[in-house]
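Budget justification note: compute hours in this period were largely spent on complex prediction jobs such as the one shown. Inputs:
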Amino acid sequence: MGVNARFNILDLVDEALLGRLPAPGGPQDGPARSRTPAGRGGLIQSPQPIPPAVPMTRLFIPGPTDVSPETLAAQTRPMVGHRSQTITDLFARLQPGLQQVFNTHQRVLISASSGSGLQEAAVRNCVAERLLVCIGGAFAERWFDIACANGLPADRLDVDWGQPHTPDLLEKALRGRTYDTLAIVHNESSTGVENPLSELAARARRVNPDLVILVDAVSSAGGVRLEMDEWDLDVVLTSSQKCFALPPGLAFAAVSDRAMARARAIPHRGWYFDFVLLDHALSQNTTPATPAISLLYALEVQLTHMLAEGLDRRYARHQAMAARVQDWAQARLGLLAREGYRSKTVTAINNTRNLDVNELNACLARHGMVIANGYGPLKNRTFRIGHLGETRLDDVERLLGHIDAFLDGQA
Ligand SMILES: Cc1ncc(COP(=O)(O)O)c(C=O)c1O
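Corresponding output:
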């Protein structure tokens, strides 16, 4: 099922706004919504009632993921001033845990944004002359789109969606033109491909020792081992709502000294996402602008939980869930990603039986569960099961049982 398609992200946004999409989250994202009825001057006329609490849905989508009650509760702590000792102490406590997740001695910047914000930051702070983007799915397209939107010269190295990038292919592209920056997606959530990151980085470094290597680890960091220092990566970024199993709204980027030196030499790198400014503030355990304090409280609770589980055990749990889902999918349908490069956090399943994914999700919703449709051009041709964050093998077994019943017409 080869796909190598350019598509417009606004198509997805429009579909979601018009309520035609159960994806990316699925039915739990709420009932079909009409566009906000704007009154004169665009003001909303009457406040919307707060919806009643609903039983928790198990999210088998590639993020947001389920958040534990303890982590959710941490957000209800009273507010304090962001320049208070409480918050500077909190920032100081967060660094060592974040550094463990990225396996780095470098700084880990914390941003009040989603991961895309730090993708934009990485591009603006690091691309001096020309960027090469490895593209094999929707989120790699995002790297490219961000570079174009910022007026930065970028080239694409495309592979069919579902295929990984290989070191040989990358080396050829890097030797074909001079690049100072390379962008890769570690785990492509739209296709379920895990790129061979350490091999790609090693080959790229051999071609150009000064290359700044940017890694989107949005759907892998915290669920899959990442060796920022050993693999000599420069910016490794992720979002809070994936393997970290936090609510959305925070993003983290481990940034190397090489990337910081590059940033210092770039004159117009913006303000909110200026690595130099963020790094200076972090050295004083603070941020230039007001941080998302409630989410930082949640982060501390969740990091403690992740380290108590043990990162190796956490990675093994993700691996075991992926193996189970992928064995099942191969027996019953088929897999999009090439063997040997399959994601440990999200599986893209070929819809070889032409299932109605909306109907499948309606059936799963009766059991409080949701999966994701295929992304963009892969919608309905594939569907995706996310197995990341705090999801356990038992949860996966229950999900597969319900999908089996649906497939066998017993649901
Ligand atoms: C691999 C990947 N990169 C980037 C993003 C964008 O992250 P965010 O939605 O946090 O901006 C996502 C979101 O699903 C993703 O899966």
